[in-house]
Amino acid sequence: MDSIAITKTQLDGDRMIINMGPSHPVTHGTLRIVLELQGEIITHATPEIGYLHRGVEKLGENLSYQQFIPLTDRLNYTSSMMNNVGYTMAVEKMLGISIPRRAEQIRILVSELARIADHIICLGINAVDIGAFTAFLYLFRQRETVYDLFEMAAGQRLHTSFTRVGGLFRDLPPEFIPLCEQFLKDAPKAIDELEKLLTKNPIWHDRTKGVGALSVEEAINWGYSGPCLRACGLAHDLRVKQPYLGYDQYEFDIPVGTSGDVFDRYLVRVEEMRQSLRIIRQVIKTLESGPIIIDDYKIALPPKEKVYTRMESLIHHFKLIMHGMEMPVGEVYSSTEAANGELGFYIVSDGGKNPYRIRVRPPCLPIFSSFETKVKGRLIADAVAELGSMNVIAGELDR
Amino acid sequence: MSILDTLLKNHPTSILDSYRFRGDQTAVIAPASLMPVVDSLASQDFHFLVDVTAVDWFGKTEHQTRFEVVYHWLNLGSQERLRVKVRLQENEYLPSLAIRFKTADWYEREVYDMFGIHFEGHPNLTRLLTWSDFPGHPLRKDFPLDGGDPFCMSDSTSPFTH
Q1: Residue whose C-alpha is closest to residue A32's, from A53, A15, A8, A54
Q2: What distance in Å separates the CA atoms of residue A183 and residue A205, rounded to the nearest whole number?
Q3: What is the mean pLDDT of residues A65-78?
Q4: Closest to A346 (Cβ–Cβ): which among B51, B79, B127?
Q5: Which residues sit opposite A38 in a β-bridge?
Q6: Helix or strand or coil: residue B13?
Q7: What is the crossing angle of helices A80-95 and A101-130, to 10°?
Q8: Predicted local confidence at residue B151, as pLDDT
Q9: Contact status, residue B54 vs residue B70, Cβ threshold 8 Å
């Protein structure tokens, strides 16, 4: 086993082995990195993952399509809304249905809020790891508002399970939009404050510039996506390149970096928060009224009042719960631009109630797999900065 | 011309099956034709290996081979996607793509861990998510959902042997 080899090298002179994790403030979940140090220089970094492996894909094979939605909350638990959206979109692609426009717009709205919350966590905690505590506190007030909004919409702050196959679980409550508008006023100020604290801060520059720099070709070879890829200089964003949910109707820019280092990723994420606010503003302005779930009782549950008053709806309800949807035989891969990169769901259906195989393509797994090569020969402090800006979420990494 | 048509033209014999479903293009190949197809894809600007995974068709009589290893490619220029499926018998090996795509390193380790499929030429084919003496491969269909016993310590399915 690896650990035996490690104790051997431990005896070897001035080398030192450091266990970062499984429970360490910078690991953001439970993951372990065995660092082999020569002084403060990292000679080897062996990531060990799987501490949070719950067998989500195996469980998915034994749950119906609707029952899998709560499990998606627990993938990237900092932006569970986007996982809900990504998963239900995959099932909808399999069914070949389109959802009402209002549901699409609300999905975009909550996805962008979740993106902001996710970036806040990533940036705030990355800054805390490096030693800049204040930015974290400034931002977390805004994150609190986002979670209040989620609570209004879904009844849950973290594990939202907001989407359903064919639409949404429920419509937005009337108090949602006023609070969201207040958020649109406050959030830019908080982002400006964050920038004032960090963007021109020489200590921040020293700690982040040049750390983890990567060329675009290398990044693609490593399977990078999302802000980490864009920081390298490639304007690849699925919201623009392969528009879904009608993202093409909104105006926003894709920020890109030049070197792909921690500083560029920071700048990309900050700008993405602003662009997300821009999208939210446009969505609120153009929010259409109408149904929020598809009017097909073979896919979506009929409303409760109909179930209790009409025989046919009761039968639909019973059939849907007991036998599930009528799924076509086939396979689809559906991907969305999650906060961290391309979140893909690959579903194989044999026509049964449960998916035959369900695969989650986590955005942070390929990014994290490059960790060793990126920190080798660098200082241990750089590993901390690098790990934070990769935004590794163990729930999604291990599934 | 879509990538599927190009592949069908350039590799008429190695594509066992091909189909389109809900806008997804799929090419099914045999293990021996994986490397030529990957070369062909690289020449068509498919440089982004999005995902590697597998499907176990255990007990499904309509499938002659037990496993399918599924690769998803993306062309970053044209944004075209292609799924390549390799049909594999239980004891067959597949060439590793880890040398050409660094991202394949962990994906193949995960497939090995979850399905027990071997990739020849992989630099470090060890388990990724479970521990090294974990019995069996959890995503195989003959692996029980509850893992057999609370700590997954006993032999719940026969582990793949070299």
Answers
A1: A53
A2: 29
A3: 89
A4: B51
A5: A15, A41
A6: coil
A7: 140
A8: 59
A9: yes
Q: Which pLDDT tens digit goes with each residue over B91-138?
A: 888 899 888 888 999 999 999 999 989 898 888 888 888 887 788 888
The identity of residue A239, as a single letter, is R
Chain B hits for A370, CB-CB cut-off 8 Å, are: 102
Q: Name the residue among A221, A241, A330 with its Cβ closest to that of B102.
A: A221
Identify the CA nearest to A37 among candidates A19, A7, A12, A17: A17
Question: Which residue numbers of B have CB closer than 8 Å to A's CBs?
Answer: 21-24, 26, 47-51, 53, 55-56, 60, 70, 72, 76, 79, 81, 83, 101-103, 105-107, 110, 114, 127-132, 138-139, 143, 145
Q: Express each pLDDT in B6-43 by its tens digit.
A: 887 888 788 888 888 888 889 898 888 888 888 888 88
User: B154 is written with which tokens?
Assistant: 């006993």
Q: How far apart are CA A238 and CA A367, in angstroms?
A: 17
- Could you tell me if the ipTM is greater than 0.90? no
What chain B residue is nearest to A342 in terms of C-alpha separation?
A: B50
- Span A287-297, average pLDDT: 87
Which candidate, A269, A195, A270, A194, places its Cα nearest to that of A228?
A269
DSSP state of A33: E
Q: Which of A50, A342, A356 sits opposite B129 (nearest CB)?
A: A50
Calculate the CA B10 to chain-centre distance. Answer: 22
CA distance A322 to A22: 41
Distance CA A81, CA A204 (A): 31
Nearest Cα neighbor of A102 from A278, A238, A284 is A284
Distance (Å) from the alpha carbon of A211 to chain B's nearest alpha carbon: 20
